Amino acid sequence: MNLEQIQKELDSINRQTNIINLQCKLYTAYHSFMYRFMNKDNFKVYTFRNHYGSYMALGMAIHNTYHLRQSILKQCIHLTKSKNPTIIKLAAIPITTVYFGVLFGLWHIPSFTGELAIRIYFGMQSAVFDFLVDKESTFQDIPLRSIIK
After folding, report:
1. Spatial contact of 25 and 131, defined as CB atoms under 8 Å apart
2. Where are the transmembrane segments (predicted)?
3. Cβ proximity of 136 and 24 under 8 Å
């Protein structure tokens, strides 16, 4: 083998090593993102939906149901076809419950999207950090003797 062939072989091995190191970095960044996205660590940032979002949904559902009380009473009058206030109030209980349940579910949507945004942010932050970290401190270079057979 002459000097040019040896240099070409070493360049080829160097390219292969760089590709393998890039694959290792991408793999680590992906797993870091998934680890943080799935909240497998004990970093308690993701309480937004679990606590505050549910409280907000409860408050907004009560507020909206309160503002819809006239509409609910009109629907009860239409459904029962009665002028008796007791019958109308009894009919309003299940209708109000359905309204409240649907509104409570709908008001959880902003908290779900808020939690998703927080998880994506921290997952991407973790993945970008792991991708940009210096490969010398994370991965050992693959010895050339293991590639050359």
Report:
1. yes
2. 87-110
3. no
**Angle ∠(45,33,114) on CA atoms, nearest 5:** 40
CA angle at 97 for the pair 105 and 58, rounded to the nearest 5°: 40
Residue 60: phi and psi, rounded to 5, are: -70, -35
List phi, psi (to 5°) of 84.
Answer: -75, 120
Cα–Cα distance measured from residue 46 to residue 77, given in angstroms and rounded to the nearest whole number: 45
- Helix, strand, coil fractions of the chain, as percent rounded to 5: 80, 0, 20
User: Is the full-model pTM beyond 0.90?
Assistant: no
Mean pLDDT computed over 93-119: 82
State the residue for tokens 């408050």. Answer: 59
